[in-house]
Design a protein that fits this description.
This protein is α+β, with helices and mostly antiparallel strands. It has 1 helix and 6 strands; from the N terminus they run H-E-E-E-E-E-E.
């Protein structure tokens, strides 16, 4: 009788382990199949340039695990003879479906913006 419990317990453990293994191998396959189209947008927020990047699922996009926005601003320095200095800012890395946001300081103008991605 005691050996029957061991056999039943061993069989149950084997079934659970096989189920867990199939779930572990299935999850990366689904995540790898997802493709995203990412875009960056810029607008003024209280007079300051603000850039936002986002990624949405798309059949023609590329594989993305994280994304962030890159914003290059021209910062005006000097009051007598003003000159502009390019300043590059990066937003935090975010997962697809979340937004990455960054802002330039005051006395800044937008030079360029783009999205950076990690596969």
């Amino acid at each position: 009788m005691f050996w029957g419990k061991k056999v039943a317990g061993g069989a149950l453990a084997a079934v659970l382990m096989a189920t867990g293994t199939s779930l572990v191998t299935a999850a990366p396959a689904e995540a790898a199949a997802a493709k995203y189209a990412c875009k960056a947008e810029v607008h003024l927020d209280l007079g300051r340039p603000k850039a936002t990047s986002s990624c949405k699922k798309s059949g023609s996009g590329k594989k993305v695990s994280k994304h962030r926005v890159k914003l290059v601003c021209d910062v005006v320095r000097g009051r007598g003879t003003p000159h502009s200095v390019p300043w590059t800012l990066y937003g935090p890395w975010k997962k697809p479906g979340q937004k990455s946001t960054v802002r330039c300081g005051f006395s800044s103008f937008t030079r360029s913006w783009s999205v950076q991605t990690k596969a």
